[in-house]
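Posted in: Protein Modeling Q&A

I'm a second-year student putting together a small comparison for a lab meeting, and my supervisor asked me to include a predicted structure for Solute-binding protein family 3/N-terminal domain-containing protein. I've never done this before, so apologies if this is the wrong subforum. The sequence is pasted below exactly as I got it from our records. If anyone can share the structure token output, I'd also love a short note on what stands out.
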Amino acid sequence: MFQIGHYQSNTQYLDEESQTIKGYNVDVVNAVCQLAGKNCALVWDVYENCWTSLPGQRSRGGVGLMARWYDACVGWTNTWDRARTLSFSDDFEKPVDLAIWVKPGGTIPNWPNLANAKIGFLDGWLTDQHCLDRYSDTISNFDPNDISQVIHYPREDDIVAALQAGEVDAAFISVRPWNSEHPELELFWQAPENRCVRGGLGMMVQKDQFELLTWWNAAFQRLTETSQYDDICERLETAHGDQPGLSAEYVCV
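Accepted answer (user: helix_wrangler)
Welcome! Here is the predicted structure, written out as tokens:
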């Protein structure tokens, strides 16, 4: 049984008509499980139950994955922090870029000095405060353990509302079409490289899930060698093209 959420992208989204999760990641899971002869089930749950982060603390495995409510979480980025606690399958999706965002016309006073600046982060996302701290050669006076400087929000809509209300000066989140096309977000600074990842996106599991990773990786490798994988990549813009998202060139491995 695999956990899956939705962030309204062509890789993972809630289809309002069928009330099911669809997208590239779902297509990959279905194809891999079929090739492996496995009876897989997808269950929806909030992302924090796979991986969670709180102000003033190190990020950690979420209760759902650690308590084995499910065997894996679908479509999670392989980061340095997560890899200390969990294991990952081979990548089936390329990693994203990272950036600091402000409200339209907004700025960060004294940039790149972040003294007294309040930065918004999303709970459990790879773009947490410890990820931003990896850019200390660019930014200064940022303390990932300072809860007056690090403000967390559960959802993207919440962080956008916080920017508009002046609760935070900026937000550190990934570069995705949802952000890039949002009328209330403006790109302020894009990281020249993603220093927070070890790889792309895959299945995130507990470190003792050797058997699952073995059959999954073997079946996914077989899938990529077939025309079926080409069809799955094409579906990003055909079957799932009504959702915002990147083209196959930036998603498929």
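A couple of things worth pointing out for your meeting: The mean pLDDT is 95. The radius of gyration is 18 Å.
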